[in-house]
Amino acid sequence: MRIQNLLKVNNKIKKSHTLLIGSLFIFAGIIALSWNYLAKMHDEIYSDMKIAMMDKDIPKNVSNDDVVDNAPVADNVDNKKPQENNQNYQVDYSKYLGVLEIPKIGLKRGFYNVGNHYNNIQYNVTMVSGSTTPDVVNGNLILMAHSGDAYISYFAFLYRLGIGDSAYVTYNGHKYQYKIVNIYEVKKNGVVKIKRNKSKTVLTMITCTKDNDSTQTVYIAELVG
């Protein structure tokens, strides 16, 4: 009888050990999954918050004029409400600093000056801090906007543009024409290098690459009139 009791006690101890070990494995698995998720979230948030603009070195035209810190991030934004490029209502463009037009994709959108509350990528096409206005010789107007299907995805159709296509910026009563001369992708690693000729007045447009959330596409357009 005593031996049977000892066997029962041993079986209970073994079961307890098995349950304990199993619980520890499950707990360790939960911690590992949570850690990976939190690490991924940290990397994404850090990348989004730290993004900056700087020029790639170009022989004989190298300077740091275009370096901008803490620029907003252009992402693919999905929403059930589709983007409306063809506006059927009257817009008061006089309230904006300037107006960007790209006839090929039916885009016409105003943008505010840096420092304005509505100069925010969640509301509008955004003028990035460090940009210059179109009337500044050899300057660089840098504009960003989201891609995707949301109503704020004003750059959703930039992917349809090619070299030689035109973009227009109306500023201070004058309409400036630009021609796209370069299109390239950069990784979302916290830095966007703007490859442009410093002896030209340019318009830079940046948005998330279509069907690729890990990169952004940069469109460089030079002033022609």
Commentary on this structure:
The structure is a single chain. The chain has one helix spanning 2-50; strands spanning 52-55, 76-77, 98-102, 107-111, 126-127, 140-144, 147-148, 166-171, 174-187, 191-194, 202-208, 215-223. With 225 residues, the chain is of the alpha/beta class. It has a single domain (51-223), classed as Sortase, Chain: A. It is elongated, with a radius of gyration of 27 Å. The model is unreliable at 37-65, 67-71 and 80-88 (pLDDT under 50).
Helix fraction, binned, reads: 10-25%
Poorly predicted segments: 37-65, 67-71, 80-88
Strand order of the largest sheet: 4-3-8-9-12-11-6-5
Mean pLDDT: 76
Overall tally of structural domains:
1
Largest sheet: 8 strands, mixed
Query: CATH superfamily, please?
Result: Sortase
Work out the number of β strands. Answer: 12
Helices, by number, come to 1
Task: Identify the CATH class.
Answer: Mainly Beta
Instruction: Quickly give the structural class.
Output: alpha/beta
CATH architecture: Beta Barrel
N/C terminus separation: 104 Å
Q: Please name the CATH topology.
A: Sortase, Chain: A
The amount of beta strand, in percent, is 25-35%
So what's the overall shape? elongated
What's the SSE blueprint?
Layout: H1 2-50, E1 52-55, E2 76-77, E3 98-102, E4 107-111, E5 126-127, E6 140-144, E7 147-148, E8 166-171, E9 174-187, E10 191-194, E11 202-208, E12 215-223
Parallel strand pairs: 1-10, 2-7, 6-11
Antiparallel strand pairs: 3-4, 3-8, 5-6, 8-9, 9-12, 11-12
